[in-house]
Give the backbone structure.
Amino acid sequence: MEINIQNVSMSYPNGKQALKNLNLDLRAPSLIGLLGPNGAGKTTLMKLLVTALMPTEGSILVDGQPLDSAERLLKSKLGYLPQDFGLFDELTVTQFLDYMAALKGLRRPKAEIRKVILAVNLEEKAKAKIRTLSGGQRQRVGIAQALLGAPPFLIFDEPTVGLDPEERIHFRNLFSRTAEDRLVLLSTHIIEDVQSVCDQIIVIHHGQILFAGTPEKLIQSASGHVGVFWEKDAAKEQGLRITARVNTSEGLIRCRAVADRLPAYVQPEEPTLEDAYLYLISGEVAE
Ligand code: ADP
């Protein structure tokens, strides 16, 4: 499966331009992390991909066919977990998935439902009413419905928000297994989620793509732009962007920062993915 986004722009009726001339090629198998600050345009992009919105300019091709004519085709190939996913509280997990399977027109719903319940580890809650589930369990139901019918293209919008660390790890493993033979697009602003599972990263900021490539390439781009220093040694100026500030037991404050040019008192360090992301977003990268 391949998706080509060509010169896509999207303006809302109020005139707000959420995406500006996007060009992207997404190809299975891949687990792609979509990163960007709030308001960057991530949800808008995902809504375009699920045809909840149409672009005001440009086109999206699915396996070479324009999305508008491929729309029905894509719907059968798409699993989607929106950010504000509503569940029916009075249904049991199985009843809800049965309903979603019917909406998707699945031929063998029982077998499919069993498979996805197993995948998200909810066997024990299969007969429980949704209103009795914890936040993490509800999120698992949302993910389960996206997996129904084994669609080759999956979109998850902020799937790990509100989950505890253990649940997040469980989901990361699930996403990684899911993406072995499919295209999975994961929108998040949790860098650890991306770092541990994604083979590709797309960074959007102000409706534009700032970066598309491997995590390693993004990290490399910040090499020589990250360092640590003691706050007492720091001069005032110098365009440093502090990314961490730690009170040490000796009473000194140790800072980590990104900058276009590191001052002499800053000791260079290997960048992490978070450093690289912050450096990119801070707009100090030379074009
Ligand atoms: P993200 O998902 O990265 O937080 P969004 O795609 O939701 O970003 O929003 C991108 C921009 O478009 C923001 O400036 C947001 O305020 C604006 N926006 C989103 N939805 C609408 C809408 N329905 N009408 C007008 N502006 C919108």
